[in-house]
Amino acid sequence: MAISSDELNYLVYRYLQESGFSHSAFLFACESLVAKANIHGSDVPPGALVSFVQKGLQYIEIETSITEDGNEVAVPNQPANSLLHWHTACASDNMVQDGESGDPTEVSEGKVATLSGHGNEVFVAAWHPKEDVLASGAGDGTTRLWRLPAGDCTLETAVHTVSAVLDQAMAGSDHRDVTALEWSPDGETLASGSFDGQLRLWAQDGYFKRNLHPHRAAIVALRFNKLGNMLLSCSIDGTVAAIDPTNGQIKRKLNNHDGPVLDADWRTSDSFASCSTDKRINVEQIGRDKPLRTFSGHTGEVNCVRWDPTGTLLASGSDDGTARVWTLAGDEALQTLSGHSKQVYTLAWAPGPGKSSGSEKLLATGSFDHSVRVWDAMTGEQKHCFEHHSEAVYTLAFSPDGELLASGSFDRSVYIIRVKDGQLIATLKNRGGVYDLKWNHDGSKLAVCCSDNTVRVITVNA
């Protein structure tokens, strides 16, 4: 058995992606030309690199512990035929075993709808803005539409869920991991972005509308403005494209960053913010070639940006371990939120003011330090710190009413917190790491994208 350099590069790329180092994975893929290798992601199981290394170490251990006549040779201070403890492959403590958990907040398997069908890890999801129709995108090159039946989620829900497969191969690409999904506000159009830099537009029923080529490298974010007449596409090729979804015309393509663009968010129907590995945040306006304003306070890559519901405050999260709050009134940050000890990878504004936030503007941040923190963005006061996770936090989502905050991690867990008092109300243990979380339109259901090729949906009661 032999392995080619292209195959090894692909395994390294997948390992980085599965471990949550998405930016490093994208950059490595570009430099190693993974997209040009004739490798289908759906043929490579999750954890392949680690599995190969473990099996190789097991073979070496067996080879050194067995004599030619087949007898075992005990190794001093170490059991025969075992790996060093840090290489031992074992089932995670987070693997769900029905009936074994004593946690009263844990959601039982009987109350979870597990949607199976993807042939690879599920990276992203997006609910239809008006109906219980869920779109999910995966490393198998497909987007799936799941129409969930009415009522609470149970084991039987998955049996009665109707799904449709939107195959990226229709657009003629073999390297098509779905990396971004977004519904238009009216629910008539679904946009999907993929690793090959192509953008596909689909009708609500899954009919393929058009294929666009706005970028030369992976698309990392898609955003419709509130009117639905403009779609932002961000790529690690360093560009942001503003696209008219009705005809696919690229209205403006901006290249004002010195590195890969990692995120963007609309402020108004014609202005938005974008962030990059160049440590900067640009506020852009359609029709202008240069930014309205550039914020340069972060000392590490800026991973995420979000405008608050009023469009007056801009939050950013960075590899420098801080989140910052900005306004267009000045160049300096209004608040620097320090408390995390590692990269701030994700953030979310509470859709308030609501019952839980009152007049406060609440901002939640998730970090590679395993913690989730909730801040008063106006004063910089930390309201809550949650340390339930045992690995990096990759995704956060407030419920539509702002009452609940869900967090997901590659520790295979999802925790749902009641914001007003910080009480843990629900725990979901999964069989794969969590890439994405999305609430449906009325906040009654939460969808969870997992690395074990499934989407899990639960009913949530505050």
Strand and helix map with partners:
Elements (H helix, E strand, L loop, with lengths): L4 H14 L3 H11 L15 H18 L46 E4 L6 E6 L5 E6 L3 E6 L7 H5 L2 E6 L10 E6 L5 E6 L4 E5 L4 E5 L6 E6 L6 E5 L4 E5 L4 E6 L6 E6 L4 E6 L4 E5 L7 E3 L6 E6 L6 E5 L3 E5 L8 E4 L5 E6 L12 E6 L4 E5 L4 E6 L6 E6 L5 E6 L3 E6 L4 E7 L4 E6 L5 E6 L4 E5 L3
Antiparallel strand pairs: 1-32, 2-3, 3-4, 4-5, 6-7, 7-8, 8-9, 10-11, 11-12, 12-13, 14-15, 15-16, 16-17, 18-19, 19-20, 20-21, 22-23, 23-24, 24-25, 26-27, 27-28, 28-29, 30-31, 31-32
Return the average pLDDT rounded to an integer. 87
| Helix count from the secondary structure assignment | 4
Strand content is 35-45%
Major beta sheet, specifics? 4 strands, antiparallel
Strand runs, count: 32
Q: Please identify the structural class as seen in this structure.
A: mainly beta
End-to-end separation in angstroms reads 54 Å
**Net shape:** globular
Spatial order of the strands forming the largest sheet = 1-32-31-30
Residue stretches low in confidence (pLDDT < 50, at least 5 long) are 75-99
Helix content: 10-25%
Radius of gyration: 23 Å
Q: What would a concise description of this structure say?
A:
This protein is mainly beta and 462 residues long. It has 4 helices and 32 strands.
Task: Give an overview in words.
The protein is mainly beta and 462 residues long. It has four helices and 32 strands. Strands 1-32-31-30 form a four-stranded antiparallel beta sheet. The protein has a four-stranded antiparallel beta sheet with strand order 2-3-4-5, with no helix packed on it. Strand 7 and strand 8 form a beta hairpin. Helix 1 (5-18) runs antiparallel to helix 2. The radius of gyration is 23 Å and the shape is globular.
